[in-house]
Structure formats: C-alpha cells, structure tokens
Design goal:
alpha+beta, binds (R)-mevalonate
Length: 319
C-alpha cells in the first residue's frame, strides 16, 4: 500500500529563568530573565476530523481539554481564525523537557511552540508581536494577570531586561555566569501567588509598595552587574531579592531551605525563581566547579533535581 507523506510542521520554544524582579514586574517594575535551555516542541500533522492533541498531561479532542487548559484551546482557535482555517483537520503533539508548575515557563513555552507550529503548518507569516498577542490569550487564562515577561523570554534567545511600559531590551553580559537551578519538587501556582501579592498590596499598600520599589532598585543594580560581569555583586543582589520575595510571602520553607543550602555550599547568591510557592530556586556560582559542588549540596539537601550551566555573552551556551 502506498503511504503518503503527511503534511507536518514544528514549532519550538525554551524555558525561562527570572534572575530578578518577578512579581514587581506585574506592577510595572523592571525584571531580568534569561533563556533556560530546556525545550518544548509542538508538531502539527494533518488529521481527518476534529482537532486532537497529545501531551504528557492530556491526550484527546481539543474541545475535550480540561478546564485548566482552556487557555490553550482559545489560543489554538484564534490561530486557526487568523490562518483562515476551519477548526478541524489537524493533530498537535507536544513534547516538553520542561517540568510544569516549577516557575520555568512551561506554559508560555508550550503556547509559543504551538502557535509557531500552527503558523508554520499553514505557511502563514507570524510577527513577534503577533506571536505575543496569541500566546497572551493562553497566558491570561493560566496566570490571570501576566506581566508578559514569561512569553517574551521563552521566545527570545537572549537575556532580557523587561518592563511593561518599555518592552524588552537585550542584555549582553560582559562575561559568562554560572547558574544552578534546583527543583524543590513542589508545584507552584503562579496565578495564586500573583493573587496573593495583589491581596497583600490591597491590605498594606505602603509596606508592599516599598518592597516592590526595593525589588526595582535590585533589578537596576543587577542589570549593571550583568553588563560589567560582576558575579559577586549579582549574587548578593539575588539573595537580597529573595529576602524581598519572602516579605511578599511567595517563598516557602523548602525554597528558603534550598537557598540556605546553596549559600552554605559556596554560592554567590540564590533566590526562588518565577511565581514561587513551590517550584525552583536558582543559585549563582563563581565557576562551573562550584556549580557542581552547589548542585550536589542541593540534591543532598532535598532538591528533586538540579541543572547547571554557563551562559555565554549571548546566553546560549549550555553546560
Ligand atoms: C512568573 O514567571 C513571573 C511573575 O512575575 C508573574 C508575571 O510576571 O506574569 C510572578
């Protein structure tokens, strides 16, 4: 029997790590994020009938997706409208190296990979702004009030300095930095964390605004430290940022324990990364040898898994 090649297209994105400024970025303050080199790939193929999707968390009809994934359904439907296509005739497969709910940008990366794959499949042009407006449909549903930093980082191959009112500017580091990422194994919920900070801010506006202002100061200094290649300064700023995130009540006992463990093992600084209330911490080390030592200490201290890598000036070098 003759087997016809199926029409097939792919789209990709990578994870993200927020170095400084999460939560404050929701209130218009600057934040710094870098690509995290774990990838998400979406593959679109021709398939008769209703749209179907296969991923590690759901496989079946697009329209039957669980409620918490409705953002992706809306995003895909909008893609099809913009590509002038009927809502049928494709199958989407999602392969992700990124663990979910760990502050590593898995939801933004999945939506970005899918949008890119669908536009590639229908051979339609997709501008960067067009991509963001489509991914935002999914992100708004998943996160409630996203600042936009996640989707901009997962779609860019460079470190970014981001502020809602100013958009993205790239950040070329004077020298590589060495970063360890440790997974607490606890799932964090960014939507709940962002809501919590909002409530705190409504209850105690002066105190919370002061903390948010302090996080802004840290972000500007961290930018300088990156541009001048000052790892020691950057490390101390990460730790200061963590102290402020604790005051925003988005850390927890395990994240604090992992930060302390990294510091005791010789890290230059450490903090939770992303929404918090679970997820990951990052630690900065002076070199790759120390990254290995800190990584081992984190695993012994209860981290479920650890990654470490060096960034080059374009932030693309993996370990
Ligand atoms: C989540 O990765 C970062 C937060 O600042 C939320 C956002 O900016 O959308 C917590």
């Amino acid at each position: 029997m003759e087997v016809k090649d199926r029409h097939r297209a792919a789209g990709e994105a990578h994870g993200k790590l927020i170095l400084t400024g999460e939560h404050a970025v929701v209130y218009g303050k600057p934040a710094i994020a870098i690509p995290f080199p774990l990838r998400v790939k979406a593959i679109v193929t021709e398939n008769a009938g209703e749209i179907s999707i296969a991923s590690s968390i759901y496989t079946g009809r697009l329209e039957g997706m669980p409620d918490k994934m409705l953002g992706i359904v809306r995003c895909i439907n909008r893609c099809l409208e913009l590509c002038n296509q009927a809502k049928e005739g494709i199958h989407i497969e999602l392969e992700s190296e990124l663990p979910m709910g760990r502050g590593l940008g898995s939801s933004a990366a999945a939506a970005t990979a899918i949008v890119r794959a669908v536009f590639n499949f229908f051979q339609k042009p997709l501008s960067q702004e067009g991509l963001y407006s489509l991914v935002e449909i999914a992100e708004k549903y998943t996160h409630g009030n996203p600042s936009g930093i996640d989707m901009r980082t997962v779609a860019n191959d460079e470190a970014i300095f981001y502020q809602k009112s100013q958009g993205v500017s790239s950040l070329a580091a004077a020298k590589p930095f060495y970063i360890v990422v440790a997974d607490s194994g606890e799932i964090g919920d960014t939507k709940i964390a962002v809501e919590h900070v909002k409530e705190l801010r409504q209850q105690r506006p002066d105190v919370i605004n002061q903390i948010i202002d302090e996080i802004e100061v840290i972000a500007w200094k961290a930018r300088e430290a990156i541009l001048t290649g000052d790892s020691a300064l950057l490390g101390s700023l990460l730790l200061r940022n963590h102290e402020n995130l604790k005051k925003l009540e988005v850390s927890n006992a395990m994240l604090d324990h992992l930060v302390d463990t990294a510091m005791r093992a010789g890290a230059l600084g450490a903090k939770l990364t992303g929404g918090g209330l679970g997820g990951c911490i990052i630690a900065l080390t002076k070199d790759m040898t120390d990254a290995g030592i800190v990584g081992e200490a984190l695993l012994k201290g209860g981290a479920k898994r650890v990654w470490y890598f060096s960034t080059d000036s374009q932030w693309l070098t993996k370990r």
